[in-house]
Amino acid sequence: MEVHSTRLGVLEIDETDVIRFEEGILGFSEYKNYAWLQAVGFKVEIDLLQSVDDADLTFILVDPFKYEPEYGFELSENWKHKLTIVSEHQVVVRTIMAIKGGECMTTNLKAPLVINTELKQAAQIVLEGVSYDLQHPIGGEA
């Protein structure tokens, strides 16, 4: 299938690379389907999440465990049920990265994306009762 991206041009992707966020991503709840482009190599290893429905909407994702080794959280039974997760082997966690000019990069550890890689279902989950940053520095000064 073809996916149009302002930043990346026309992408030819396999439909199995489309991830569905039933509740959308915070601030973008109307957009549910994204092409997940994994492990794009730049200065840091990133994934890209391109909206299937809006060429202007692209998120940069990182593996939070590479930047914060102590990072972790317990997924609630409610979220496991919503995402049909029965094994941790089905799950990939990514966080949204922001670039603030030059080398200044941060990632949102407070609201990770949890992806069921087998069923291609995902959700952005706001973690309660944790002190993770919305703008955790991952390169340069934040």
UniProtKB/TrEMBL annotation:
Principal place of residence: cytoplasm
Alphabetic keyword roster: Bacterial flagellum biogenesis, Cell projection, Chaperone, Cilium, Cytoplasm, Flagellum, Translation regulation
Keyword Cytoplasm among record annotations: yes
Subcellular location as annotated: Cytoplasm
SUPFAM superfamilies per record: BH3618-like
Binding partners and assembly: Interacts with translational regulator CsrA and flagellin(s).
Similarity-based family: Belongs to the FliW family.
Protein task: Acts as an anti-CsrA protein, binds CsrA and prevents it from repressing translation of its target genes, one of which is flagellin. Binds to flagellin and participates in the assembly of the flagellum.
Name of the protein in its database record: Flagellar assembly factor FliW
Organism annotation: Paenibacillus arenosi
